[in-house]
Structure formats: C-alpha cells, structure tokens
Amino acid sequence: MSEQTSESAVQKKHDTLIVDADAHVNPPHTMWSEYLPAHLRDQAPVVEHGEDADYVVFEGKRRKVNLISAQAGRKGKDFKMEGRLSDARKGGWMPGARLEDMNKDGMDKAILFGGGPLGTSNPELFTESFMAYNRWLADFCSYAPDRLVGVGYIPMIDVDASIAMMRECVKMGHKTVNIPAFPMAKADTLNGAQAQMMALTGNITGDRSYADPEFDPFWKAACDLGIPLTIHLGGRVVRFTEPKFFLSDLLMSKFGMAEPIAIMIYGGVFQRFPDLKLVSVESGVGWFAFAANYMDETWHKQRHWVNSVLDKAPSYYMDKNIYGSFIHDRVGILTRDMPGAGNIMWSSDYPHSETTFPDSQDKITELFEGVPEADKNMILGGRANKLFNL
Length: 390
Fold this sequence. Notes:
Elements: E1 19-24, H1 32-35, E2 46-49, E3 54-58, E4 61-66, E5 82-83, H2 95-105, E6 109-113, H3 123-142, E7 148-153, H4 159-172, E8 176-178, H5 192-201, H6 216-225, E9 229-232, H7 243-255, H8 258-266, H9 269-272, E10 278-281, H10 288-302, H11 314-321, E11 322-326, H12 330-334, E12 344-346, H13 360-367, H14 373-387
Parallel strand pairs: 1-6, 6-7, 7-8, 8-9, 9-10, 10-11, 11-12
Antiparallel strand pairs: 2-3, 3-4, 4-5
Helix pairs in contact: 4-6
C-alpha cells in the first residue's frame, strides 16, 4: 500500500473527538502470499472462484468465504454470511475506502483489531502468520497514521518470543498488542485440531495461567514500552457458522471476558505491575460493576483460607488497571460511577455484523441521553486517546 496523507478534516456532525475504540480490518486472503516469509508463501491460503461463491483453500480444506465480519452497511434482514470477496465491505481492507466510511460515520480515529493468525498445525507457519499480519496492518495504517491506529497480534506460547514480537510491533508503529484470553499451550503438546483451535481462540491452556511468574517478564516489558494490552471479545469461542449456537455463544463470549480479568487480578499481576493496563474489547461493560462488587464481596469473605496475595480489594484494580469497550451498552454508561466500572470507551465495531455504521451518530445520541458532556466526551474519545497514547 502506498503511503498517502489523509484528509485532515472529518466530515463531522459533532464537535466531540470520537475515537472508535474497537474497529476492525479484514485483510484479504491473498495477503498471506505477499507478507509471509518467502519460504512459507507456497503454504499460504489460496482463493478459488466457484460458481456459487469464492472459496478459501488451505491445508487440504476448501471453505466458502465467510462474510460475518463484513456486513457494515447492510440491514440485518439482508445479511449475507457466505459469498464472494467482492461482497465484503471494501473499508475492511482498502484504507482509502475506510477513510471515506469513517468520514461518513463521523469517526475521527479508529483502533484497528483484526485478522490473524492462520489456523494451522504447522508451528512455524502459525508463529510467522502473526508477524505477516502485523506487517500488513502497519502498511494499512501508514496510509493515514493520524487516524488509523494499529493493534498488533501476538501469541502467548514462549514468553521471550512474545516479548520480542511485542517490541517489533511497537517499532512498526502499533499502539498496543492483543493477546489471547488465556496463555497458549506449548506447541509441541498439541495435535493439529487443537493447534487450529488455539490459533482461533487461545482456549487450549493446559496448566498455564497468566498469574504464573513465568509471564512476569512480559508484563514488565509492556510497562517499559508504555503500551496497554488488549484481549478481544472474550474467553470462549463463538460458533460463527452455526445458527443454532451463534446467538447464545455470542452472549457468553461477552461474559467470558471476566475470567481472564479475574485470574490476573486475583493472581496479583496488577499488584506486581501497577502501571499495567488491560483492555477488555468488544465484550461490553455493563457487567463491570457487578463483577467488581461480586469479586470484592467474595474476596473479603474467602481471602484468608485461599491465601489471597492481594493487599487491596479487587475493585481497586478494576478502577486502576482494567478498561473496556462497548457498542450498545446503555447499562454500562449508567453504571460508570460505580466501583470498577469507570474506564469505559465507545466503539462502532465496523465492519462487523454488530456495527452501528452508518448510523453511529444516531446511536450515540440515543446511548448518551442525559449524560453530562464531560463524561460523554471522555467515553467517546478522550479516554481512548490517552490510553493508546494518540
């Protein structure tokens, strides 16, 4: 992608800085053959044109292109879950089209989550696919670095390797890195099916925990680099291609984010690293107040026999170290002054199927009815602007 200067003025319908705290890119499947190391490019996915749809062919499997992450601009009744690459919203992978859509929707800046890694049983290809994606994203953001903000993706298998990859992401210009909800099991203990599930969800954890001392060098490195860390969506897999389970899975994926947060709080991670910031992304925030209250109550009663390492109640760390993004969460806005529930940021989820695009301004007006301007401005952009060092 060639670097260009973005339009300096957004076609704004508002005076408030809006930083979309959770937006997305959908890199084209053909990207892998360009951004993977040369010796792995012959193993990259291939796109085939069929009579009924485009197909992605990878490691002996052939599947239709899934479009759930590219429904922006369509009404729910018109969603198209499978089809051709041309059916996907162009702003997902074309930066010029992305800026046009941001202008149309009144977005000043966008924090960009996305599309790695490859779900492969080949350990080298798996690891290298993270960096291939991160390089592609850096090129995408270079089109308008004042408005397009990259989130690097890294695995959590080998701690030293993850630290090195995080540092590379920062050098590329990414403002944060996304880690799986749970640390990944060592690659040599997995079979092919488990490795693919690990690639998609990070759910294959074995006995490892982010509270374990082995991960302390990673948390320290993030603090030294001055970047927050993110976990996207939740701790549990959503069966996106199965209508029978999709809606219930999607709900539980939101609440599932409480598990890695609780593990890190109770495990003393934020007590040991008070400057560490963790962002819960696309999991809503209406449950933050409940989680903080419940953790406090149970900690006060149970902390002695479980030998808790904490010297402060869990809500203290929720207030100081935990942030969250939401899309349409009026409850989260209304509970923002309760313990543990204040560090919240709005997002559009463009171009996913939950997105508020192209009606984000109307949704914002609805969500923030009666909310003081200072609070509204902080949730819509001020907090994200500061957190991600923009």
